[in-house]
Every structure is written in structure tokens, then in C-alpha cells.
Amino acid sequence: MKIVMATNNQNKLREAQEIFSPLGIEILSQKDAGVSVNPEENGTTFAENALIKARAVYALVKLPVIADDSGLCVDALNGAPGVYSARYAPEGQLCETLLKNMQHVPEEQRTARFVTDVAFIDQNGKETVLEGFCPGMIGFEKRGVNGFGYDPVFLYGSQTFAELESEQKNAVSHRGAAFRKLYDYLKKYYQEGI
User: How many angstroms from the chain centroid is the CA of residue 57?
Assistant: First the structure.
């Protein structure tokens, strides 16, 4: 059983492969599936962007497709960076820019959440979107060497996501939560044909 994931991000691909392997599902990257597409993510919600990516890949492969859109929503910044999380700052400067924009925000007002919407399109074109989130806080400095994106400044309890091992992070993360919902959906889908 093969599903194409609308990404070439090796971190996302690895997380998905770890989560879905017990179902016997092989998760392929776009590249593995021979697809090179990078649609403009011009949706105003995570769900819209996930569907834009999934539909673009599905149109080319006609196989089941998974796509996700994730972002960090910071309460003190009125939900920003939100759907613009990946484009919030130049490459490699996401954390620095966020910390600079929050330098005067006191600890108790640094609440935030990671959100992931994952879209699944089956081989017949049926679309399903599921959401996961993880509440936390924005720290005052980068900590940890694991993870990517905003992980070094996102505190879950006393540790940043970048300080957690991948198994720990997958157990509590937004993407992990969305993928676990998708895991349950796919288990039913492939076992019961929903």
C-alpha cells in the first residue's frame, strides 16, 4: 500500500513514515513518486493550503495523497505567523525574527500553539481533512538541536521541541496529533472500506 506525501521535506517525511509504518503503508515523497510540483499556497487557512498541495500532487499521480500545512499561532501576535509561518522571515531566521518581535512580551503572555491540518485524498479523489494542535509557550532563547523550524523556541512544559527526542515529540506534537487522527482514519478506511 503506497501513499504519496506532498512534500520533499525529509523531516516531515520521516515523521510520517514512523507513524504510518505499523499499518504497512509505504509513504513516498513527491520525488520518489516522480512528481515535481510546488503549488502556490495562497489559502487563508491551514486546511485550504493542505488541500491545495494534495490536489496538485493527486492530479499528477492518481494515487492516495497526504499533504499537511502547519504553522505556529502566537496569541501575543494576534495568531501570527499562522499560515505564513514558513514565510515569516528569511530562511534560517524564523526563530530570531519571532524572538525579536516578542522581546517585550512578558512570560505569562507568551502562549502559543502549533497547528497542523492534514489532507488525505484517496485513489478515487475523496477528500478528508483532519486537524491536530499542541499548546505551549514561546521561550526567550533558542534551545536544543533536534527538530526544525520554530522547535528551538517552542516550549512544551519545561523543554523546547528541539530538546525532545523524536519519539517524545511525535507523541505530543501538532503533526503527530493530526497524523494519529489520520492513522485511525486510514486503519478504518483500509480495513472497513469507509
Answer: 17
